[in-house]
Design brief:
Helices cover 33% and strands 22% of the residues. The protein is an alpha+beta fold. Strand 14 and strand 15 form a beta hairpin. Helix 3 packs antiparallel against helix 4, helix 11 runs parallel beside helix 13 and helix 12 packs across helix 13. The radius of gyration is 26 Å and the shape is elongated. The two termini are 24 Å apart.
Amino acid sequence: MEFDLSKIPFSRYGSYLTISYINKAEHIKEGLYIRSVRGGDNDISHLFFIEVTYSGKTVPFEAVASPVNIRLKALEGYVDICICEKHLIRAVGHGVGLRLSMEERSYDNALPVAEGNWEINCYSEETKFRLVPLAGSLKVDAPWDKYRSKYVIADFLTDEKTNGFECALEEYMTVWKKRNYGRIFEDCKKDIEKHYCNWLDKTLTVKNEFLEGRELASYITWSCVVPPKGLITRHAMYMSKNWMTNIWSWDNCFNAMALIKNQPELAWDQIMLFVDNQDESGVFPDFINDKFMGWSCCKPPIQGWIFLWMMKRTNVFTMERIQEIYEPLCRWTNWWFEYRDDDMDGVPQYNHGNDCGWDNSTVFNKGIPVESPDLSAYLIIQMDVLAYMAEKLGKYDEHKMWKLKSDELLEKMIQHFWCDDDFCALLSGNHEIVKSQSLLLYIPIILGKKLPEHILESLIKGLKDESKFLTEHGLSTESVSSEHYIPDGYWRGPIWAPSTILITDGLLEAGEKEFSKEIAQRFCKMAQKSGMAENFNALTGEGLRDEAFTWTSSIFLILGNEYC
């Protein structure tokens, strides 16, 4: 498999290093860069600008990427690059040299060290690199300017006899530890290939029609796993190594779903990462990276739905794991009733669009806080799951309590939100109806046959209406007939993977097997053609925003494996 570096970054399992093409950032020269995904998505990392040289001058090249190797092809020769270990990049070339350069920034500097090596202190990104020539030579131009290098240009040059070069770039935080780089480049590539193929073997199977998409989704998920570091307490799957370099506290749940059958320990780590960082009030952070956690918003309580989905398909919920997750899930559920029900009507609210995951949904057009039926639906399922867990743990009074709370909220949800054959959203407090044609109002279909038959029939009818959400490619997040529909409007039109699987599974639970299958099929066809993008133009199927997203990859695999 080959892929486009302008859309999909080159990286590997267990590394924060990545190589990708930057073409949309202000104040950063367009081109191919060695980057790091540490520190979140506030700034675009651009450690080293990559160029190919011949006779001392840069020459045009084409970058061809596969899961284990990048080849930079020039008329005069080639350079091969791989990330052979989590902190180590190796490169080998023939006929041409490799240039790595850094612009003037902060206190960044370069200095010569032993045996013809150089140390590059990337002060602005809080890391260092050892540049080691293994064959050929290394020439560095880094003029000193008061307190930093004015710029850094590192040239790995070919040997006159062999017309080739080989080098290593090793990243470290404090001091470099002397080591032997004696393993040949091809053996390094074989080790990476073996690791990736093992991951591919464990990736959910799909029918032949979607095999190409399966390999792309497999590579994206494999390459986005980072090791524990800082606030990242477990191996964790980033949302992307392009621009969305965090883990949000519902994205991770969908990634866990795709891992649970064949990699249950890693799946469990995706869930428990946020439990490790749960606030004493019960809320989970909005997002996590190795350096920061965000608490300004949160994400919806989707964990109960995720656990129910997993329990129907695997035996991963042992007594030990139920014991481990029960109290954190109780605190998370209670948080919504204790801290997000300002009018004390027993129906929790969202204080911002980001809290529901649908950041700019038209449900929030009139203001905040908003009571929305999707939140109640998530909590109903979560309390059913807590009732099940409590019974398993012998907490029979708590079992009865959670079951009663779930039933009460179901009744309140229907009385509160069902009007004129549709669910609506309300402003908390005065309960003024918010006029919205958002697909968010159809999320309660996840309750399946817990809903009265007439409500289910109305929801299914609305989802099948091609003048509303149903397009050739799946379900838009805002009705295509809405005055607020925007083709690239984030949650005001584009098709998203999470809304697709939630509604697809809800339809299946409601007995709409063929319609569920049809939506899954449309989504998978679109993603196979347009890539595993953050979201998609609902009318054209074009991939939008970040084009290498893990929850899209995971949900593509789940839909292709089970729902198609």
